[in-house]
Amino acid sequence: MKEETVLFRAPPMTSLTLDRFRSLKNLPSLPEQIDNVLMTTGTTSSMDYSIVEMIQYDPAMAMAVLKVANTPIYGYPGKISSLQQAAGLLGPGAIKNIILRTPIIERFSDTSSEVLSIDYLQLWIHSGVTAAVSGGLGRFIGGMESDVSFTAGLIHDAGVIALTVYFPTAFAKVQDYMDENQVDLIEAEKQTLGFSHLEVAGEMMAAWGFPPQLSQVILQYVAPEKNKINWEIAGVVALAKSLASEWGFPSGLKGVTETERDRLLALLGISAKELQKWEPELRKYAEFALDTMKIS
Predict the structure, then answer these.
(1) Of 93, 152, 190, 210, whose CB neighbour count within 10 A is largest?
(2) CB 165: neighbour CB atoms within 10 A?
(3) What is the pLDDT of residues 63-121, one digit of tens each?
(4) What sections of 70-220 are H helices per DSSP?
(5) What's the pTM value of the predicted model, to 2 decimals?
(6) What SS3 state is found at 233?
(7) How remote is the C-alpha of 175 from its chain's centroid?
(8) Which helix (H) or strand (E) holds 3?
(9) Residues pairing with 104 in the sheet
C-alpha cells in the first residue's frame, strides 16, 4: 500500500500537475459545430431557441455556458448544474457571444495528431448520445433532476478533451503505458500522471465555479456507489454511456472500462425488463441528438 501511494504521488513519466488545469480558460469545439451555429444565426433573426438546441449536445460549448452562468454577475454563483438552467438564465444572445469566443479544435489538432490518434468527432457523438440517454433515463426512473443527468452525461469526458487537446504528449505516455502494461485507461493515467481524467474534469469545474453536484457525479460515474453523494445520477451516466457504446456510438478511447450492466441495474433499482421497455424511446432520444448535432 505504501509503495502504491508513492507511485501515485511521484509519477515517473511526466511533470504535468493537476493544478495546471485550473488555469485553462475553455475547451475547444469541433469546427462543424461552430459552423452550424454561425449558419443558424446568419440565416434567422436567431435570438431564439434554435441556438440553444444546437449547443445542447456539445460538451465544450456546454462547459463554456455553464462557466458563465455560474459567475456572480448572474446572481447564482456555483448553483447552476444543468445546461438547460444556464440557457434559461443567460438567453440566446449571451449564449451566441459565448460560442463565438469558443476556440476551434483544429487549432490544436496538428500538435495532437503527431502523438495521438483521437477521433474527436466520434468522441463528440458519444458525448451527445450519452447526454440524450442520461436525460431519458432520468425521466423514466423519476425522482431525480433529469436535466442535471443530461448535462453530466454530456460533459463526462471533459477531462479527456482537456488532456488530449492541451497536453497530448503527456496523454501519449498514458497510452504507451496502457499498451505496455495491459491496464485500463484510469490506472494508466494514475501511474503515468498521478491523477486521472476524472480528476482533471473536477479540477476545471472547481476553478470555473461549477456546483459540487456536477463534479461529484463526474468523479464517481466509473464506479458509482450508494454511499456517495449524487450516486444515482452517476449511475445513470454510467448506464447511458454503456448503452451509447452498445448502440454503435463508443467514445473511441482505448482502455475505457465500463461498469457491469447488471451491477448498474441493481444499483439503480431497474430490472432488465424495464430497461428493454424503455429502450425504443431512449433510442429516439439518441437519434434526435444525432440529427441535431448534424455531424454524424
Answers:
(1) 152
(2) 23
(3) 999 999 999 999 999 999 999 999 889 988 888 888 888 888 876 655 555 567 789 99
(4) 83-100, 106-115, 120-141, 146-155, 158-166, 168-181, 185-192, 197-207, 212-220
(5) 0.91
(6) helix
(7) 20
(8) helix 2-9
(9) 29
Location of C-alpha cell 511533470: 15
- Which residues are CB-contacts of 228 (< 8 A; sequence separation ≥ 6)? 216, 220, 234
Cα separations in angstroms, 38 against 62, 70, 92? 16, 25, 13
Question: What phi-psi label fits residue 283: left (phi over 0), alpha (psi between -120 and 50 degrees) or beta?
Answer: alpha
Q: Which amino acid is located at 65 in the chain?
A: V
> Which among 59, 54, 31 has a CA at the least distance from the CA of 241?
59
Strand partners, 252: none
Question: Based on the number of CB atoms within 10 Å of its own CB, is 142 exposed (0-12), middle (13-18) or buried (19 or more)?
Answer: exposed
Question: Measured in whole angstroms, how far is the alpha carbon of residue 197 from the centre of its chain?
Answer: 10
The closest alpha carbon to 131, from 58, 184, 68, belongs to 58
Tens-digit pLDDT profile for residues 178-237: 999 999 999 999 999 999 999 999 999 999 999 999 999 999 999 999 999 999 999 999
Q: DSSP labels for 166-199?
A: H-HHHHHHHHHHHHHHT--HHHHHHHHTSS-HHH
From 3-7, 69-73, 164-168, 248-252, the region with the lowest mean pLDDT: 3-7
Please report, for residues 32, 53, 153, 170, 251, the alpha-carbon distance to residue 222 in angstroms, rounded to integers and kept in the order given. Answer: 29, 28, 12, 22, 14
Q: Which amino acid is at 162?
A: A
Q: Which residues of 219-248 are buried (b: 16+ CB within 10 A; e: fewer)?
A: bbbbebeeeeebbbbbbbbbbbbbbbbeee
User: What is the identity of the amino acid at 261?
Assistant: R
- C-alpha cell of 225? 456507489
